[in-house]
Predict the structure.
Amino acid sequence: MCTRFRDHPLAFDAALALGVLVAMIAASFTDPHGSPTGPTFGDRTPTLLGVVMMAVAAAALVLRRRRPFAVLAFTGVLSLVELLGETRPAPLAISVVVALYTVASRTDRPTTWRVGLATMTALTAAAMAFGPTPWYAQENLGVFAWTGMAAAAGDAVRSRRAFVDAIRERAERAERTREEEARRRVAEERLRIARDLHDVVAHHIALVNVQAGVAAHVMDKRPDQAKEALAHVREASRSALDELRATVGLLRQSGDPEAPTEPAPGLAVIDGLLDSFRKAGLPVSLARTDGDRPLPAAVDLAAYRIVQEALTNVRKHAGPDARAEVSVVLVGRTVEITVLDDGAPPAEPAPDPSGGHGLLGMRERVTALGGALTAAPRYGGGFRVQAILPLAPGTSRGAGTGEDG
């Protein structure tokens, strides 16, 4: 029933107006001083004009939501006219109470108290000055009390409605914030997985390509060397599959077979990474001054991937006679990863149809950790990639420019 009236406010107001009319008619038959023991019913009757005024005042309440101030003014004038008469068989103040409550519940507090005080003062003063009872009669104080309670009740309802609306708005805002945070985390996780996939595939496929070319070149004249190259191809492909399985395992749903439990790559296994490049024909030297100090997981993985991608770019672009140097140095609260080579890119490098993302991926990794990346040709030939990673990742300090590999 309440939901039905809430969906049809005009019907509710019509029912309220009918109830107010019944209450006013019933009160008009009541004489509060009919006997020494208390009020009596039926000792007095309203006049025809009083009944008409009660009906008109009740009918005006149907429009109380659309024109609250106009309805209050109209019912207030009718009540003043009734109070100025010699008798008061038509208690029109009941309609004023409902209209004042409506105004208070639909406006601000200062307006409520200004309008409420004016209404209470006007009706009470008229009742005291022109009513048939003494100025100190209970009926006169009752007019003051009922109009004051109507203003207070309406203000309380308005405050509660505003409080509920504020709570609902905060809840909706919090829900939107959670959804945005969830979408941001999903996007970051997708980007991280994409970086890992790119690094794994680019590194191992480059090694497979080199070793397969060596095997094809020496297959007829030096089969033993061809077998060795094919063994390297098998080892690189197995390593690529293992890393791909570990990376894609992050996408498993709960209840799927258990994902691989091997630790993520880091500087602890960098020797194996360099050996894979040496087997592919790229001489690589390593210099470390970090004392094999454990690094934060995110920094350790980023350092490994940066070395992996930088050496993959050397193998792809620096030429067959290039040499590479890798250094890992702890400087204060940062770790510096540097990869140098002495090769030279072709005079007119062909565009990469895949739109390579090597340096872009490195730059994104470093920026996400709050570090800095520089990647540029070296004076006198070769290329230099240097990443400075804070051990406590924080605000990004930027990344240098360089051509993607």
Notes: The two ends are 71 Å apart (CA to CA). Residues 253-257, 346-356, 395-405 have pLDDT under 50 and may be disordered.
